[in-house]
Amino acid sequence: MIFSSLRHLFLLEQVSASRLSYLTHMASTQFIGGRRRASEYGLQLKRTFSVIHGSLDWLTPEAREYVVEKARLCQPENIHVCDGSEAENAALVDQMVRAGTLKKITSDKFENCYLALTDKRDIARVERKTYICMEKEKDACPTVRFGSKAFLGNWMSVESMDFQMNRLRFPNSMAGRTMYVIPFSMGPVGSPLAKYGFELTDSPYVVSSMRIMTRMGKSVLDYLQQSGEKQFIRCLHSVGRSLGMLSSWPCDPENTLIAHFPHRNEVCSYGSGYGGNSLLGKKCFALRLASSLAQREMWLAEHMLILGITNPEGKKKYIAAAFPSACGKTNLAMLKPTLPGWKVECVGDDIAWMRFDSEGNLRGINPESGFFGVVPGTSMKTNPYAMKAIHKNTIFTNVAMTKDGDAYWEGMEDEDLDLDEVEVTSWDHRRWTRESEFTAAHKNSRFCSPAHQLEIIDPAWEDPKGVPIEAILFGGRRERVVPLVYESNDWTHGVFTGASMRSLTTAASLEGTVRRVNHDPFAMRPFLGYNCGQYFQHWLDMGKVANAKLPKIFYVNWFRKEERSKLPGGQDPKFLWPGFGENSRVLEWIFRRTDNEDVAISSPIGLVPKYGALNIEGLTPAVDMENLFAIRKDDWVREVQGIREFFEDQLPEDLPGPLWTELKKLEDRVASMP
Ligand code: O2Y
Ligand code: MN
User: What is the C-alpha separation between 669 and 173, in angstroms, rounded?
Assistant: First the structure.
């Protein structure tokens, strides 16, 4: 028995290793349905591929060559070139409903909404299987102190990864399936800030989701043909050869691998159909590859929301803000201010691409056109605008469903839903009640909704020039130490605050749930496309762009809690700040600072609001401002030690000199505190 299975494995390996040379000797292939045969393009292919939708003639010669090369590798049953039309999407949705991949949410509270339930092993993006592939390890990751575990990115050599992908994973990976060719634009088509890509995928769920998250289809193809634009990002995706546990959600979790080749403008993702692993325009292209492009082309690709804020006098400003994943970026981007007369509008909730224009203004776009937000906790209280937007034309993934065809998730606070009456089936197909020890919706369940449906989408969100950014916010989840808001002393100090960002994370471990304050520079730790030290240097260099009007940089923390030591025994500390709509009070102070109003005072860590300058009028219950803004010497001695340890451990050779200097300056200021 053992002998025969080993022999079987051996044979498989032989086949994989010889596949490429085998393929190159195959006879030429015809494309049926496209107007020309592939052999007319001079390409040698294994066999006949039918083009069942669209045409290869729609593609530029470079894009066509890419499609044919990958079709030869993945051996799909046929090829579908996406046009992005309503009719095309309706047919795909229909097909997915028939295959059980999507279920229609039939309740009349939802219009044209669907639910996808994934394989249990395919529920989030997988950092440990995500690599940056460059010639030298040093190009991708900083050198760490001897004996330390590298924390800032995974590297694999280009050759090893090519072998993994082209020999072991992708050959034949699309057999029996359609290869969809998705032409897409990150950013408004034709914008000087936009970039283009082709995602080749065997997942119709990815096609429908990319249609929401990006500008996709014929408009992009026409633009590429007409403009002569040659650059495009190559994105290859397959859910993999293994069927997984559900035939409605094929995947290959054991072999999942996601690779980025910044110098080839290429992403390859195998084995997962989920979110960030499969919608390759998002984290893979718009952050990892784009951050590397941005370094080479002198712009910024950041894990940031962009919001527009208008004061009661009608003056408007735009703010970009970086927070680690799961720190409420979507809620801030769609904030409903409690301050009378103030208005917030949303440009984007996750990614910002920014470049200084000829007048020196930092112009930003949201490269996406949809929201892929976390569902649990989304309610009329936490995010009323999102709540409305996600009730139509939305693909939900891994929420629960009631017997009446309603979607359900923890924290939705739906008074119309009587949970004692209605039968709920959890995302993983179990009968769920309020007493269940598991959650109804997966904690990383998502909505995928078109941005234009948001009531407060900014009127300029598709402006090809982008919007002028006047302030940049960094922040994280910190229960102690960090005050509600402070402003950096200058650009270099601001870059230092971004580099030293830390946030509380909660993760399951063998011992139970561990809560740890983790370093997450610029909220980019999982999304860096090149060496983090060089990334910091790039931010410093951006501060030297000729005639740049540098935005002010702030640090915010909505999550500070009461000091446990000051509470009666056993009492759980509460948040000191109400958050959500009340965060508009902090934005008001930031707004005034961008007008250089004299409402700030120096502190050892940066500029903080002068006494009385933060508008807390009408806040009930009253806020404990003293503890909310306390900057305690012992806390900050430890904080600065933590930053030094991080820099010395993870970036001993790569941290730019000016950031060592900023660290020393902060250490000195803290040391001289009374
Ligand atoms: O788990 C996933 O695949 C989604 S991750 C994600 C999605 C939308 C916005 N941000 C994130 C993130 O991890 O930062
Ligand atoms: Mn994100």
Answer: 58
Mean pLDDT of 1-14: 28
Q: Which residue has the tokens 């989030």?
A: 124
- Cβ-contact 610, 600 below 8 angstroms: yes
Ligand 1 pocket at CB < 6 A: 124-125, 274-277, 325, 350, 372, 444
Alpha-carbon distance of 644 to 633, in angstroms, equals 16
First to last CA, the chain: 75
Domain CATH number, residue 203: 3.40.449.10
Same domain, 211 and 305: no
CA of 158 to the centre of ligand 2 (A): 27
- The strand ranges marked E within 311-383 are 316-322, 343-348, 352-356, 362-365, 370-374
Least confident of 279-283, 290-294, 484-488, 562-566: 562-566
The CATH number of the domain holding residue 472 is: 3.90.228.20
Looking at 453, 484, 510, the residue that finishes a domain is 453
Q: Are residues 242 and 224 located together in one domain of the fold?
A: yes
Residues 121 and 201 in one domain: yes
* Domain end point (choices 297, 319, 334): 297
Check whether residue 410 and residue 524 sit in a common domain.
no
Cross-strand bridge partners of residue 259: 131, 268
Closest-lying ligand 1 atom to the alpha carbon of residue 277 = 3
Whether omega for the bond prior to residue 621 falls within 30 degrees of 0, making it cis, is: yes
Kindly give the distance from the C-alpha atom of residue 56 to the centroid of ligand 1, in angstroms, as a whole number. Answer: 33
How remote is the CA of residue 261 from the centroid of ligand 1, in Å? 21
Residues around the ion ligand 2 (C-beta < 5 A): 325, 350
**Two tokens, residue 440:** 């109804």
The range of the structural domain enclosing residue 416 comes to 371-453
Q: How many domains does the chain have?
A: 3
β-strand partners of 266: 234, 261
pLDDT over 50 at 24, yes or no: no
Distance 324 CA to ligand 2 centre (A): 7
Which residues carry out catalysis?
327
Q: In this structure, which residue's CA is closest to atom 12 in ligand 1? A: 325
Whether 291 and 305 map to the same domain: the answer is: no
Kindly give, in sequence order, each residue whose CB lies less than 8 Å from that of residue 613, ignoring residues fewer than 6 positions away. 589, 592, 599, 600
Do strands 502-509 and 512-519 pair parallel, antiparallel, or not at all (unpaired)? Answer: antiparallel
Residue ranges with strand state E in 88-162 = 102-104, 114-116, 130-132
Instruction: Indicate whether 383 and 359 sit together in one domain.
Output: no
Residue 566 is predicted with a pLDDT of 82
The per-residue pLDDT for range 324-383, each reduced to its tens digit, is 988 999 999 999 999 999 999 999 999 999 999 999 999 999 999 999 999 999 999 899
CA 238/CA 256 separation, integer angstroms: 10
Are residues 363 and 437 both part of a single domain?
no
User: Side chain identity at 431, as an amino acid letter?
Assistant: R
Q: Which atom of ligand 1 is nearest to the CA of 276?
A: 3
323 and 393 together in one domain:
no
* pLDDT single digits (tens) 350-360: 999 999 999 99
